[in-house]
Known about the structure:
Largest sheet: 4 strands, antiparallel
Pfam families: 2OG-FeII_Oxy
Low-confidence stretches: none
InterPro entries: IPNS-like_FE2OG_OXY (IPR044861), IPNS-like_sf (IPR027443), Iron_ascorbate_oxido_reductase (IPR050231), Oxoglu/Fe-dep_dioxygenase_dom (IPR005123)
Domain Fe2OG dioxygenase: 29-129
Shape: globular
Order of helices and strands: HHEEEEEEHEEEEHH
Protein name: Fe2OG dioxygenase domain-containing protein
Amino acid sequence: MNKVSQEIMGLLGISLGLDQAYFKDFFEQNDSILRLNHYPPCQKPELTLGTGPHTDPTSLTILHQDQVGGLQVFADEKWHSVAHIPGAFVVNIGDTFMALTNGIYKSCLHRAVVNTETVRKSLAFFLCPKLERRVTPAAGLVNAANSRKYPDFTWAALLEFTQNHYRADMKTLVAFSKWVQEQESNNKLIP
């Protein structure tokens, strides 16, 4: 998965007018996460969510979902089910990459829904920078037409924030940015 994510990062860099190696180099050493998700059936699926609406705080998510489905993305002001395509991955942009691109690429708001009969399983690879790596956009992505949107931070700081101070949702990066600014104004060190 690391190799696949590196190739995707190279293509995303090119799409932004950066060198193909820019993001590949940034993520060459990384602290990525692999997670198996298990969603048991629920007799009243309309009353619960497998995972509530959120954006991933990571940089990139590569998801392999089973044939049960249940992943939904929010676009055009409504939820859309993501069909299972055998042998295909679903790729989502996360908050860290949104910060790295100064908001040019947006985090994907999504959720997982359960069903009444079948267990749903998915395997998610989350591309993350090294814990101590400073997340800051490339100079060419900040200009008069696209002013700086987010403060510099480390992946360790965002991870600590989402684990100890704030449950990931659709406004995680905005809440984190405010938290960073508050910490800095109070002269508290951020990892």
